[in-house]
Amino acid sequence: MRKFNIIAAITILSASMLTGCGKEIKEYNDSYIVASVKNGDSKLDYATASTYLRIMQAQTYDYVQNQLKEEELMLKEAELDLEKYKVDQDRYKAEQDNATKITVAQINSYRGAENMDQDMNGIPDPIEIGKQALE
After folding, report:
1. Are 103 and 129 in contact (CB under 8 A)?
2. ∠59-61-66 over CA atoms, to 5°?
3. 52-81, pLDDT tens digit by residue?
4. Quick one: which of 74, 105, 120, 130 has the most CB atoms within 10 Å?
5. What are the phi and psi torsion angles at 36 (to 5°)?
6. Helix, strand or coil for residue 118?
7. What is the CA radius of gyration of the chain?
8. Model-level pTM?
9. Would you say 116 and 130 are in contact if contact means Cβ atoms under 8 Å apart?
10. Taking 60 as the threshold, does the pLDDT of residue 46 lie above it?
11. How does pLDDT run across 1-28, given as a tens digit for each residue?
12. Maximum distance among all Cα pairs of the chain, rounded to whole angstroms
């Protein structure tokens, strides 16, 4: 009995595959028309409208996928720019800290010296060094 059911199912599926899914439409019926042009012979049936809709869906999907990829690339680029900015900022801070340490060391080197105005311009040298560091 099981073998008979399998053979019957295969026969029915084969017959339906060979005959097709529907009947041929010889003339348009108003129920098949989705849209028509006023005062014209152009008519759009359901099958054609469905095909156009699927094509538009595929194009829209591709467009959205491309936009998402582009957005991901822009985010990665922004992250790289942010990293570069952080590195540059850290380098700037290190350079400024080093310059400050050098200036402090120069000022401290004059501490306790008897002659603090070696260029004889009337302004003690530690003050001139500090003023140059601020400029």
Report:
1. yes
2. 95
3. 888 999 999 999 999 999 999 999 999 999
4. 130
5. -145, 155
6. coil
7. 43
8. 0.42
9. no
10. yes
11. 777 777 777 777 766 655 555 555 556 5
12. 123
Query: Residue 43 to residues 25, 28, 50, 56: CA-CA distances in angstroms?
Result: 14, 9, 14, 19
Detail the DSSP E strand segments found in the chain.
Answer: 33-36, 43-45
Q: How far apart are CA 126 and CA 135, in angstroms?
A: 14
Write down the residue that tokens 């040298």 correspond to: 125
Do 87 and 113 contact (CB within 8 A), yes or no? no
Task: Determine the residue type at 23.
Answer: K
DSSP letter string over 74-95? Answer: HHHHHHHHHHHHHHHHHHHHHH
- CA angle 119/120/126 to nearest 5° reads 60
Taking a C-beta distance cutoff of 8 angstroms, is the pair 21, 9 a contact?
no
Whether 34 contacts 44, CB under 8 Å = yes
**Residue 104 tokens, joined:** 């402090």
